[in-house]
Amino acid sequence: MIFSIQRRSTFFHPDNLAFPLVKTQFAAPPIQAQRSDQCAEALERLLTLSIDSGASDLHLSAGLPPMLRINGQVFPVENESPVEADQLDSFVCHLAEGTNVMNYQATGSLDGAVSSASGVRFRYNIYRRQNTNAIALRRLEDKLHSLADLGLSEQLYDVCDDSHGLVIVAGPTGCGKSTTLAAFLDRINQTRRTHIITIEDPIEYLHPPRMALVNQRQIGTDASSFNDALVAAMRQDPDVILVGEIRDLNTIRTAITAAETGHLVFTTVHAGSCIGTIERLVSVFPADEQPGVRQQLALVMRWIVAQQLVIADGPAITKETQATGIESRRRVVASEVLKNTDAVANLIASGKSSQIISSMEAGGGLGMKTMEHDLARLWNEGYLTEATASRLSRNSDIMKERAEKQRRQTPNGRLGSR
Fold first, then answer.
1. 361 phi and psi, to 5 degrees?
2. Buried b (16+ CB within 10 A) or exposed e, 144-180
């Protein structure tokens, strides 16, 4: 596959790219501070290449050509020379200017966000590989989307009317969790006179205050850690708190406390299912605390949305329909939804998580659904082939049964709008 570069533009030029290095037992490869217009132009050229090619990700590694992820697959850019180590160090220095580089020296990883000259934002992660630097840049959506745009049910907007509690979007890396959370926050921002605080690493979607007051904080520049920022947030008069990710015991504990004390808390968890999300949160705690944590979750949990992002390969994806929404991205969200009803809360508190699936299957009128149900819908709507839907499901037989039931309930045998 060959990509061509259509234009060049000028990147930002910081006044001083130099910063002190810190020696640790996990010393990162040295970052050479170089101020160079050629470096800025080269980085901007690669960002432009990624934009023009419709790529979701750009990967830069020393000794390898730039790599682009397009429709879920990674391709080397042909006719591009391998990125030299010195040039990559300059890119790293350019991106890291103004961040807490000491974290990189200690951990070998640094997160941030950057905008191209055209205004398109990218999230980046700088990391070590075999004693050299590497960079992964992910293109962020340049506008906030509705749930319908994302392929999710608008019934999920009920989440935004809760006054307090815990709302979790779960899924693997790169499945669109941040985009879904941004849709929820945008809805609150447009409909409620409230105070929203976001704690992110890095800030991905910008939310200009509309009806709500919105303050966004970035880990590394505005706060030292998720937990510290979350503890501080409860003294900043918030109504809604977004925590980019809860991944350690202290942050999970504080998020639960915030939800208990009258705040609506949104966050993400790396888990493959709604039930898996509950078990992952509980398993972080020591065994003697887990029964109490289950009781807390049963009280504060409001919704869990577990999603995955897959390539749409069904007959509905044609050149004629690739204009908006799912068709324009050629990727589709498959999701399952759990609402914490009294019955579900009792199962969470008693540790009977395996029985929650029955409540999800019976709770369609409340907005709940299983992953098999949604994959069946996507198959019936023509976004996925039978083979793909079967491969993605946990139980292909159940998925096919749900698909047949949906077809029987639809006059023409094909589902319409969500």
1. -70, -30
2. bbebebbbbbeebbebbeeebbbbbbbbeeebbbbbb
Give the residues across from 139 on adjacent strands.
122
Please tell me the pTM assigned to this model: 0.79
Is the domain covering 37-139 a CATH 3.40.50.10490 domain? no
Q: How far apart (Å, rounded) are the C-alpha atoms in residues 255 and 165?
A: 10
240-243 and 264-269 as β-strands: parallel, antiparallel, unpaired?
parallel
Distance, CA of 153 to CA of 133 (rounded, Å)? 41
For residue 122, what are the β-bridge partners?
Answer: 114, 139
User: Which residues pair with residue 242 across a beta bridge?
Assistant: 198, 266
Number of C-beta neighbours around residue 90 at 10 A: 24
**What count of other Cβ atoms lies within 10 Å of the Cβ of residue 63?**
11
Architecture (CATH level 2) of domain 147-369: 3-Layer(aba) Sandwich (3.40)
Domains in the chain: boundaries: 37-139, 147-369
Mapped onto helix, strand or coil, the DSSP state of residue 6 is coil
Residues 265, 267, 271: CA angle, nearest 5 degrees: 140
Q: Which tokens sit at 209? A: 């205050």
Counting beta carbons within 10 angstroms of the beta carbon of residue 335, is it exposed (0 to 12), middle (13 to 18) or buried (19 or more)? buried
Distance CA 213, CA 197 (A): 8
Residue pair 44/98 in contact (Cβ under 8 Å)? The answer is no
Using CA atoms, how far apart are residues 78 and 67, in angstroms rounded to an integer? 9
Q: CA 154: distance to chain centroid?
A: 19
Q: How far is CA 327 from CA 224, 318, 322, 331, in A?
A: 40, 8, 4, 8
77-85 contacts, C-beta under 8 A, 24 or more apart: 77/3, 77/49, 78/1, 78/2, 78/3, 79/2, 85/132, 85/133
Helix (H, G, I), strand (E, B) or coil at 80: coil
- Give dist(CA 49, CA 261) in Å, integer: 47
90-to-39, 114, 166 alpha-carbon distances in Å? 7, 15, 42
pLDDT tens for 62-72 read: 999 999 998 77
Report which secondary-structure segment, H or E, holds 245. none
Could you read off the pLDDT of 213-251 as tens digits, one per residue?
A: 999 999 878 998 999 999 999 999 999 999 999 989 999
Across 77-131, the runs of DSSP E, i.e. the strands, are: 109-115, 121-129
What are the pLDDT digits (tens) for 155-167?
A: 999 999 999 999 9
- Pair 189, 211: CB distance under 8 Å: yes
